[in-house]
Amino acid sequence: MDNSIYLFEAEGAYKKFLKSSKGFLGLKKRENLKSFGEVQKNENAYNSVYLGIKEVPLSKIVGSVEKYTDFDKNFVPKNNIVKQRWMNIYTGYMAESMLPPVILYKIKDDYYVYDGNHRISVAKFLNFVSVEAEVEEFLPSKDAADEMIYRESMVFEKETGIKDVILSNPLKYKNLKNEIRSYVNFIHKKKDENIDYKAAAENWNKNIFVPVKILIEKNDILKNFPDSNINDIFLFILDHKYYMSEKRDKNTGYFLSTVDFINRVKTNEKRSLSNNCKIEDEETLRACEKLRKIDYELIYSLEETEINEKLFKLTGIDFRYDRVLLEEVEKIGTPEKWYEENYKKITEYFYNKADKLPEKYSRYLQYFEENRIFGYIFEYKCCKNFFENENPEISVLNYIIEVFLLIISSFDDTVSEKEKIIYLYEKIQNQYFYLFRIEKRLVEEGKTTKYEKIIADNLLNIMSFKNEQGYYDIKGILINRKYEEFLDNLKKPEEFLNIYKKYGESGKYETFTKLFEMLDILGEEKFLKKIKNDLKKMFLSDDILADYKMKDILTEFNNNLGKEKDFYNREKYSFIDFYADILSFTKETAKDEDNGNIDLDIDILDMEMYYREKEKIYI
């Protein structure tokens, strides 16, 4: 039978169940489930015995191990986070699908859900008398809880070699052990390495456990968990990783899960755009790099991981699983063949052509290693979208003409140290690359895309965009010019400025282009009303704030990876940039029933949800 019928029915069932818990006029008090942890502590019940599969009366299930705040005492959901999962299980029950037994912990005569809270909730709604469950009983013990914890930590150390891991709940050591076993399986399957459990545990500790705890410590979130320690928080983050991965149907990895968890804790502590996960010092940055590396290996296929590693060995460049490059290598055949037919061909052709230039240009070639030059040309091709049909030799010639010659021409003879030459070259090159990325928009607006022309046209107004070496911030000049142009088009610029200052100044030229389009469609009055209301709604949404903070942090993380210390080479991503991206993406990709573009009247919360699903913020 078509399950879509039951899915439609599930929506009504969910709403009916919620309504039943509110009573007359919604004044009924909703009591929480019992917390297994609290009862366990009070009863000192830490020794357990496995009872196997049993039929357990629903009336005996009174609490939860982890989810006791998500449901009331009758297992009615307390928030909409669980809605989709609840509806799926309702559909499964109605379609008579085979659902696995729930897992229950028993203390005395009461049962607590370890796994299967949503199944119990649906069973309660459907008035089931009992459910099939896998039961583990916890017996009151004469041993003090801290003695049990100490004993478990010693066992954990003996098995893993990892010292001084104290958890508030001795039962949680098995969670850490399971996590390490998963890591062992990953090494065996993904990396094809034969490694014993203890060696894998040491590797896991160094590359996952310690880096996550560095992020926890540096961001000072322990103060929000007075009854927990840093190792407990690590387990909370593992739960969050599982939740995020299940919600997005994709492994979100350790890095993004940790950052998102910290963002949400900080938002709960103080709702502010700037109160987010900080990745500022070298130790935190290195910790994040370790987590990101593991995530790449977990998320990408074995074949992609091997290609990335071979490319690094061949070129000395970490391409970070660049999708375009991976596809390029797959088309050619092998990394070795790509190295000979692409990498060597491009670099040799560059040096051959550049060496024939006048001495004032060619003498600088000694400062640039082969892999550095390839990296420049590769990024140039990305900016220009020269991957489909562009001849590699033409790309090299264009790079020499459009970038290399122009930058070297700006150097004077006083610059001679290698490090300073490379530093200045890359800073100016980033300005050219920025122009290439927004070239299409500038052309559409009838504006020049030439570096020198932009400087000349704005010479009287750009001294504040000139750094101490005498080089200009092209990006800053263009954004500032577009900002002033936007204000000139408003009858009430002060109203927009209040919003602009409250939610962060834009760091993207494209944002003003998108706001211009919105202004043209709506008119000034509707535009100002919409942007003000939309941003307020977004700011009050925990999920949207978390999504924005993630994009902002990833931007800053990439800045730090590139060691972009100069103000004009660092990317900046404001809440208004995020808003403009959502509007633009939804308008360009979402379709109505007639396959036409949607209008801007759709609720911004729905737009952001669509953007999150399609744009995949958490990759």
Give structural notes.
Pfam families: DUF4032 (PF13224). InterPro entries: DUF4032, ParB/Sulfiredoxin_sf. This is DUF4032 domain-containing protein. A hairpin with a 2-residue loop joins strand 4 (about 100-105) and strand 5 (about 110-115). The protein is built from 26 helices and six strands. A six-stranded mixed β-sheet has the order 1-3-5-4-6-2, with helices on both faces. It is globular. The protein has helices at about 5-20, 35-45, 85-95, 115-125, 145-160, 175-190, 195-220, 230-250, 255-270, 280-300, 300-315, 325-330, 335-355, 360, 370-385, 390-410, 420-435, 440-445, 450-455, 475-490, 495-505, 510-520, 525-540, 540-560, 575-590, 605-615, and strands at about 35, 45-55, 60-65, 100-105, 110-115, 130-140. The chain has about 625 residues and is α/β, with parallel strands linked by helices. It is about 60% helix and about 5% strand. The protein has four domains: about 5-140, Conserved hypothetical protein from pyrococcus furiosus pfu- 392566-001, ParB domain (Alpha-Beta Complex); about 150-300, no CATH class; about 335-465, no CATH class; about 475-619, no CATH class. The model is unreliable at about 565-570 (pLDDT under 50). Helix 7 packs across helix 8, helix 8 (about 230-250) crosses helix 9 and helix 13 crosses helix 15 (about 370-385).
